[in-house]
Automatic annotation (TrEMBL):
This is FAD-dependent oxidoreductase. The keyword Flavoprotein applies. Belongs to the DadA oxidoreductase family. Residues 2-364 form the FAD dependent oxidoreductase domain. Keywords: Flavoprotein, Oxidoreductase.
């Protein structure tokens, strides 16, 4: 059986690994530029988080609970993955133990999300403990932004994703059944209800029995050309900064809660004398190769203010930019399409790396015609948009996140009713937008407000 995997990011490589571990005799071709332009993984800290990214309303629907079940299963799977890919550590930096901060850099949304993480950890018996922030190794915030509470989530980890991708690819390359093709797919040739072949950018053609579309934020280009009813995938432009400093080495991940439409600010060990800080995020209908200056400023300032003020004398090694694949309803696309030999795995936003051991193995199981968790049907690539938020829930949440984001960007309201007026203005604008797109019985996800505002996602009006 010949398998063609389009995309050489974490989901493509882990799908190939899952096929090799299935015991079935297959030949696998993995198509993608070796440089991985726009790779979300290469710009990430690859935090292996299930609980640290939960918010107060994260588990409010059965589908969100399913995603969380997948996340917890991935947390349990990662130690064995490391043992397989980098058994002695070697050139791959990774570890477990995440400190979560509750500081005063923003408003009460942080408090609510911090409390929610503690409550969810208790509900699911997740190993964690309250710690004195002053006991966190190498935690030196500006006193005005110091945390008054902190948690240590003992099983939540991190890994240098560049090193891990290199190690994973190197291991796959030792298998004679795997071929890497350093180019891109220009077009998928469709006929007779299936994919007949892939036209490559170098002018060659690749034929296979089954195709897996796992090309990240670029998924919509190829899927759209096929005419399949697959929702649009956007570019979540993320930025991280790698620093060098022998005197400011972190032993664990240190991070805030999710806040202001993103995952807050974090710092992770990245090597013997390296630290990675992150991350910015904004949703775009088109790819961007470079980071915004304003995002870099905000990120560096937040890291120095809230994690370690000694970062100011570290060496700036690189600014990494990646495209987080974000769907039009924010949920992943996983499963078979209406074409008999095309499967899709993508739209995982910032969860793809962490979830990969589980969702890639389940995809391969389904490709073999075997049963997987029936809840995967909700994530079918050709589904209608999932709209789990009511109009009021979406508007209220967006107001909170936009105000929270403003405080992160040095917003200092006058000592009058400015804050109340700003909240009312944002709410009025959002209500008008919901009216304009016909969102009476459903709500726009906060991070996708501008995609609806500028008609990149159609409403129901």
């Amino acid at each position: 059986m010949k398998i063609a995997i389009i995309g050489n990011g974490i989901l493509g490589l882990m799908t190939a690994r899952a096929w090799l571990r299935s015991g079935i005799n297959v030949e696998i071709s993995i198509i993608g530029r070796q440089s991985r332009p726009g790779s979300a993984t290469r710009a990430a800290a690859a935090m292996l988080n299930s609980f640290a990214e939960l918010e107060y309303d994260s588990l409010s629907t059965p589908l969100d609970r399913f995603k969380f079940d997948l996340s917890r299963a991935a947390t349990a799977a990662w130690p064995a993955v490391f043992e397989d890919i980098c058994p002695t550590g070697g050139d791959v930096t990774f570890g477990f133990g995440t400190y979560m901060l509750n500081n005063s850099a923003t408003d009460s949304l942080d408090d609510d999300n911090f409390n929610a993480v503690r409550e969810f950890a208790a509900e699911f018996a997740e190993p964690c403990e309250d710690v004195d922030p002053r006991d966190i190794p190498n935690y030196h915030p500006d006193p005005r932004y110091r945390a008054l509470r902190a948690l240590l989530l003992k099983r939540e980890g991190w890994v240098n994703p560049k090193q891990f991708l290199d190690a994973l690819q190197a291991k796959l390359a030792t298998n004679q059944r795997v071929t890497f093709i350093d180019t891109e797919v220009s077009k998928l040739d469709m006929g007779g209800g299936k994919i007949r072949g892939a036209e490559l950018a170098d002018g060659s053609r690749l034929e296979a029995d089954a195709f897996v579309l796992a090309n990240g934020a670029n998924l919509s280009r190829l899927a759209g050309e096929l005419g399949l009813p697959i929702q649009r995938v956007f570019y979540g432009i993320g930025m991280s900064i790698e620093m060098q400093s022998a005197e400011n080495i972190h032993t664990h991940c240190v991070r805030t809660t999710n806040r202001g439409l993103a995952c807050g600010v974090y710092s992770v060990p990245y090597g013997p004398d390296r630290t990675l800080i992150g991350a910015s995020n904004y949703i775009s209908p088109i790819p961007h190769d470079h980071a915004h200056v304003g995002s870099a400023y905000t990120l560096l300032k937040a890291a120095m203010d809230q994690i370690n003020n000694k970062f100011y004398r570290a060496n700036l090694i690189s600014v990494n930019v990646g495209w987080r694949p974000t769907t039009s309803d924010t949920y992943p696309l996983i499963g078979k399409t209406s074409l008999e030999n095309l499967w899709i795995i993508g739209g995982t936003k910032r969860d793809g790396f962490h979830l990969s051991p589980v969702i890639c193995a389940d995809l391969v199981t389904s490709m073999q015609g075997k049963s997987v968790d029936e809840r995967y049907a909700q994530l079918a690539p050709e589904r209608s948009l999932i709209r789990n938020l009511t109009r009021e829930e979406a508007i209220s949440k967006t107001v909170r996140h936009q105000i929270n984001a403003a405080f992160q960007h040095d917003f200092s309201p006058a000592r009058n009713r400015m804050l109340e007026q700003l909240e009312r203005n944002i709410r009025t604008d959002l209500e008008s937008l919901h009216d304009r797109v016909g969102a009476a019985e459903w709500g726009i996800p906060p991070e996708l407000t501008d995609m609806y505002r500028y008609h990149h996602i159609p409403g129901t009006a």
